[in-house]
Amino acid sequence: MRLKGKTAVITGGTRGLGRAIAERYLVEGASVVCASRSPHEVKELVDEVPDRVVYHEVEVADPASVDGLMRFAVDTFGRLDIVVANAGVHRDAKVERLDPAHWNEMVGTNLTGVYLCTRAAVPHLRQSGGGRIINVSSLMAGRVAVGAAGYCATKAAVEMLTRVSAIELGPKGILVNCLSPGFIDEGMGQAVASNDKLWQTYRRRLALGRAGQASELADAAVFLAGGESTYINGHVLEVNGGLLWA
Question: Which residues pair with 33 in a beta bridge?
């Protein structure tokens, strides 16, 4: 129960990695707002713990929607302590063929969404006496992948936004860190692991020889949200099992 009495907002929290983090936060005693464009797979969690988890619709690229999300969390549970900015999209295409609409979608969701969550959360976190912001980037933030210019660029920007935010918000008692998942058996990583031919290529780059489990990423998310990481700020925590990238 390391997060007992805390309230967390998780964007992209209704499926994949976001849902896995929400599930683990609930086990650790937190109250959770699972935010997304759609409820997806969150009903089961709501049915299991109806007094500590709710769904709220949000468009992370819309300032008014994100502001409303943070107010909703405080109105529902009385406080805000943790924000996990996890919502993300990936559109494959080489630069010369990348549709500007898809580029704008990735920038809006993956980067602007993180900025807006940070901006909207700050006054509520300060009112709670400080708090944690955990942004989610990707192994592709620092590695070249053909056909992933928009995704790589936005995730790299998230890591720098994390570092700058940490310096600016640390004096206010708000710690800002970043989770960088490798190949995880949920969310976007699941598509790679389920493609046998593609997976044989990537599996050889993993020191542990396997994909990570969503629960292993959730463990790291609990660490960054809890009392064991009080002097960690502006850090990018890679959860990738030892990844080699040629």
Answer: 9, 54
Rounded Cα distance between 106 and 102, Å, is: 6
Residue 2 lies in a domain: no
Catalytic residue among 55, 151, 202, 231, which?
151
Q: Is residue 244 part of a domain?
A: no
Exposed, middle or buried, 111 (CB in 10 Å: 0-12/13-18/19+)? buried
**10-residue mean pLDDT series, the chain (246 residues):** 97 96 98 96 92 97 98 98 97 94 97 98 97 96 92 98 98 98 82 75 84 95 97 97 82
CATH code for the domain in which residue 230 is found: 3.40.50.720
Give catalytic status of residue 151 as yes or no: yes
Provide the number of structural domains found in the chain. 1
State which residues form the domain around 229. Answer: 7-239
